[in-house]
Every structure is written in C-alpha cells, then in structure tokens.
Specification:
Elements (H helix, E strand, L loop, with lengths): L9 H9 L8 H11 L4 E5 L2 E4 H17 L7 E5 L4 H12 L3 E4 L6 H10 L4 E5 L1 E2 L2 E2 H11 L5 E5 L6 E2 L19 E6 L9 E5 H14 L7 E4 L6 H5 L2 H8 L2 E4 L5 H11 L3 E4 L1 H10 L12 E5 L5 H11 L2 E8 L2 E5 L6 H6 L3 E2 L5 E5 L12 E6 L11 H7 L6 E9 L5 E6 L3 E4 L2 E4 H9 L4 E11 L3 E10 L7 H10 L10 E4 L13 H10 L4
Parallel strand pairs: 1-13, 3-4, 3-5, 5-8, 8-9, 12-13, 12-14, 14-15, 15-16, 26-27
Antiparallel strand pairs: 1-2, 6-7, 10-11, 16-17, 17-18, 19-20, 20-21, 21-22, 23-24, 25-26
Helix pairs in contact: 2-3, 2-4, 3-4, 5-6, 7-9, 11-12
The chain binds 5'-O-[(R)-(benzoyloxy)(hydroxy)phosphoryl]adenosine.
5'-O-[(R)-(benzoyloxy)(hydroxy)phosphoryl]adenosine binds next to helix 8, strand 16, strand 21 and strand 22.
Pfam families: AMP-binding (PF00501), AMP-binding_C (PF13193)
Protein name: (2,3-dihydroxybenzoyl)adenylate synthase
Keywords: Ligase
C-alpha cells in the first residue's frame, strides 16, 4: 500500500464492496473495455485533432511502454501540469495503466506550488506543456529541477529544449502488464487548502470509479453525450462531475477547449453539437452576459452544470431561458462528497439549492461548534462520510486529526442547511479560505509569503464580495514602523516568490492594527465587515 495513505477501516471497505459501490474495476481496465465497445466512436477532440476510443487506447498503451522505459513504475508519482490538450488524457491513462500516480497540478501553479508537489511526493517525473498563455513552463521546470535531484525526468509536450519530448515516448512495443487493483491509489488530487499549501488527496480506483458511475447516472450521461471541457482539465470538477472520466465511462465524446472564452467555446458547441458543459459561477455569468452578442447556434446544449462556488439564485434563474437547456447545480469537493440537483427536480430545487448527495450511502451530519447535531433545517457545519469521501490526506497525520472526526467523518468547513427532502443549501464557510470564483486560496499560505517581506509586520487575508467572482481576496497589511511598501510592490514580491497567479491578492488595505476576538486572535469577521461598511478605507 502507498506510504502516507490512510486506509479504509476493514468493515466499511467490506460494506461498500458488498453494497456494490466498489467494483474492483480500474481506470486502465475501463478504457480497455470502452475501446472495444465503442472502438470507432470519437472519444476526444482537441484543438489539434481527435481520437477514436480504439486510437486513444492504442496511444495510451504506447505511452505506457515509453514511461516504463524511463523507469516509472507502480506507485511512482508524476506531477502532471498540462492544459486542455488530448495529451493530458493520454498521459493520465498511461499512468493509470502502469500503476503510477498522476499528481494533478493546475496550469496556473508556479514555482511555489510545483516545487512543493515534486518534493513532497518525491515525484519521478514532471510533465508540462512548453508554453501556454504566454508562460514558459520549461523555465519553471529548470528552476525546480535544479533544486530537486530526485526529479529525474522533465517531459515536455511541444518543444522540449534540453528536456525530453513527450512524443518520443510513444513506443511501438507492448508495455509490461502491472497488477493494479481497485483498492490501489489511482492519483493524488489537490485540496483547496485552508492551512498552508494544498493538501494532497489520494483517491483509489474503487472510490473514484464509483464517483464516476454515480455522476454519470445523476447527470444522465450516455454514449450520445458530447461534453465540452472549458475548465482546467486537472481540476476534480471537470475531471469527474461527470466531466472527462464520466464521459469516457459512458462512451460519449469529450471536446476540449483551451480556454473558457465564448470566442472559442461557442463555435465548438455549434461545430460538435455539444450537449453538456460544466462551468463555475463567474463563467456562467459571463456567458449569460455575452450570449446575445454571439451568433452561434447553441441549441444542442441540454445541460449546463454550475458549481465550485455558490451560484446566486438570480443568476441561476437566467440559465434556462437564455440557453434553452437545464441548469444542474453541483456542490462537490476534491475530498469526495458530490451533490447534484437532479435534471427532473422541481424548479425551486434546481434554482435555490445545491442539490443532494449523489449516493444513498453518503452520510451527512450538520453540527454546531461542539459537534452536536443542529435541529433539522438549521444551518450548521457539514460533516460527511461515505464510499468515496477520503479517510485522510496524504502524509498529513497532524492535519488529519483535525480535519476528520474519530469515526471518519470529513469536516468540510462548509456551513449548510438541509431541507426535508435532503437537499443542501450552502450558507457560508467556516474555513480560512477564499473561494475566488471556484479557485480556492488558503489565507494562511499567502499571509506567510507576505510576512517574508521586510516591510510587513502582519498580514491577514479575507474575502471581499465581488459581483462576478463571488469573492476576491483582500490583504490587510500592518507595515513595520519606518517601513514603506505599496500595493504594486507587494504584488510583485508575491509574483517573484513564484506564487500561483490566482493567489495574489486583488486588493491591499494598509491599517495600523487588526481587530481582535475575545481570545486575542485576529478577527477576520470584523475585517470582512470593514470591507462591507468601508470603515477602514
Ligand atoms: C470543487 O472542489 P474543490 O475541492 O475545489 O472545492 C470544494 C469546496 C467546497 O467545500 C465548497 O466550499 C466549495 O468548494 N463549493 C461550493 C460549491 N461547489 C464547491 N460552494 C457553494 N456552492 C457550490 N455549488 O469545487 C468541486 C468538486 C467537484 C465538483 C464540483 C466542485
């Protein structure tokens, strides 16, 4: 078993197997099966070509052979940082087949995150695109590799410079079959994080296959589905709700858009007859606002999924009339639990709630500060346990002791209420995190970077309401006596430290002192209120 993986208690594992949740099917086997069942149907379309199921499986096998030749084997970790390109799908399945574990980095991650992922997971390889949206990932790789000798291979999709070219790894020879079991960890996903850097989330084939199966059922994905991916492929949401893996599971077609811009996405919807797409609220708002300006025919759309952060009811009401398709809200988390509104739910549920758990085996508790269950319908802290919610983060025993209850419930950090029919409404959050339009920022991580600046005495990051993103991040700063720093300097400082772009605060407010709680901690609630009332400005 993978070191640092918190195993499932035997009796619960047994229960989920008996209940038929965990089937033992691995992702490598799933692709193998689909390549026979849907051999000549298109599996994936990218900006530079397309592949049938059979072709995809063949390319995956060839790449699996090349990766093995590099010495990558079972349970080895490989950091994958690719945009929405076909090679991403090939790489991930090739790793699944040889039992190696992709670690899913986002294209917006920079030195700060990538060096940590490579180091913490002792990654054997780092797979990147040469350049994307003006950023050169080879420069980043050079910096990371110089400091981490165990990172043997940097593999580049595109111009490789001194590194290895991904296309050179597709070998016309069989790869060596590896025993991969349903109970094996399939990959490491990233958590949004609330303390320090993202925690890593190990997901087994069993759990994740069940996530996919239930998502496919709840979203009615079939071989006729054409699913457009506009969000970054490696995020849990476009990967599995039902996203890439759900579409392949059902024998449908994936269309990859490099960006979420309507300039690119709308023509793709028209050209490929896209039936489903998943969006985060700011994107949904943007698409709603510009829909009229575009002439493309979008009538093929049947479902727009929206999730990742709270979708306001007012915006939710506009989706169905504007796009002539059904809105499906999704409230999920990389740690596990996923809730969907169902396609045939009454209007009120689709607009005002974030859905209900996708599995009858999901257990939900709504509790107060002392972990006592609150009266039905009242908001409280959401705790959850179930067949696809993890038992612990990778190599994080101390954090796990706080993030999970003794009986294995995950403390989501979300404040929700549950109605009589079991539908959840997200009412707020009790974690030190900013949800910037679906992108999660751990306040503490950014605060720590700011504290490294010579002029900063103290820093506190809080969420500030934003019309489009829902929330933006705002840094309250106390400067050291006799020191000066401007907003521009601090932003540049964070950029130079290699912080992912979305984590750099949108706003800075310089203050003399922070409001305190009775316990003497910084009162972020008061800081948030100051932003609303404008007192500190
Ligand atoms: C998804 O996953 P993560 O891991 O990036 O973030 C999870 C957190 C949740 O705990 C919650 O705080 C927030 O994101 N969230 C929502 C939401 N969906 C996620 N808050 C309010 N309303 C919603 N609809 O974001 C994710 C994973 C799988 C599917 C969809 C989203």
């Amino acid at each position: 078993m993978l070191d640092g993986f918190v195993p499932w208690p035997a009796e619960r594992a047994e229960f989920y197997r008996e209940a038929g949740c965990w089937s033992g099917l691995t992702f490598g086997e799933m692709l193998e099966k689909r390549s026979k069942e849907y051999a000549h149907q298109i599996a994936v379309v990218g900006h530079n070509g397309q592949l049938t199921y059979q072709e995809l499986n063949e390319r995956v096998d060839q790449l699996a052979a090349g990766l093995q030749r590099l010495g990558i084997g079972k349970e080895d970790r490989v950091v994958v940082q690719l945009p929405n390109v076909i090679e991403y799908v090939e790489v991930v399945f090739a790793l699944f087949k040889i039992g190696a574990l992709p670690v899913f980095a986002l294209p917006s991650h920079r030195y700060n995150e990538i060096s940590y992922f490579c180091d913490f997971t002792e990654a054997k390889a780092y797979i990147i695109k040469d350049k994307f949206t003006g950023f050169d990932y080879r420069e980043l790789a050079r910096q990371v590799k110089a400091e981490l000798p165990q990172l043997l291979n940097v593999i580049v999709c595109g111009e490789e410079q001194e590194f290895m070219n991904l296309s050179s790894l597709y070998k016309e020879e069989p790869f060596e079959k590896v025993v991969v079991q349903g109970s094996d960890v399939a990959f490491l996903q990233l958590s949004g994080g609330s303390t320090g850097l993202s925690k890593l989330i190990p997901r087994t084939h069993d759990e994740y296959m069940y996530t996919i199966k239930r998502s496919v059922e709840c979203c009615k994905v079939s071989e006729d589905t054409v699913f457009l991916i506009v969000l970054p492929v490696s995020h849990n949401y476009p990967m599995s709700s039902p996203g890439i893996l759900g579409t392949l599971y059902a024998g449908g077609k994936i269309v990859l858009s490099l960006t979420p811009s309507p300039d690119e996405a709308f023509p793709l919807i028209e050209k490929h007859g896209v039936t489903m797409v998943s969006l985060v609220p700011p994107l949904a708002l943007h698409w709603l606002d510009v829909r009229e300006k575009y002439e493309e025919e979008l009538t093929s759309l049947e479902v727009i999924l929206v999730g990742g952060s709270k979708f306001s009811a007012e915006a939710a009401k506009r989706i169905e009339p504007s796009f002539g398709c059904t809105l499906q809200q999704v409230f999920g988390m990389a740690e596990g639990l996923v809730n969907y509104t169902r396609l045939d739910d009454p209007y009120e549920k689709r607009i005002y709630t974030q859905g209900r758990p996708m599995s009858p085996y999901d257990e939900i508790k709504i509790v107060d500060e002392e972990d006592r269950e609150v009266p039905a319908g009242k908001p409280g802290h959401l705790l959850t346990r179930g067949p696809y919610t993890i038992q612990g983060y990778y190599k994080s025993p101390e954090h796990n002791a706080k993030a999970f209850t003794k009986d294995g419930f995950y403390r989501t950090g979300d404040i929700v209420s549950v109605d009589e029919e079991g539908y959840l409404t997200v009412e707020g959050r009790d974690k030190d995190q900013i949800n910037r339009g679906g992108e999660k920022i751990a306040a503490e991580e950014v605060e720590n970077h700011l504290l490294a600046h010579s002029a900063v005495h103290d820093a506190a990051i809080v969420a500030k309401e934003d019309k489009y993103l829902g929330e933006k991040s705002c840094a309250f700063i106390i400067l050291r006596e006799d020191y000066q720093a401007t907003k521009k300097e601090l932003k540049q400082f964070l950029k130079n430290r290699g912080l992912a772009t979305y984590k750099i605060p949108d706003d800075f407010v310089f203050v003399e002192h922070f409001p305190m709680t009775h316990l003497g901690k910084v009162s972020k609630k008061d800081l948030r209120n100051q932003l609303i009332t404008g007192v500190s400005r």
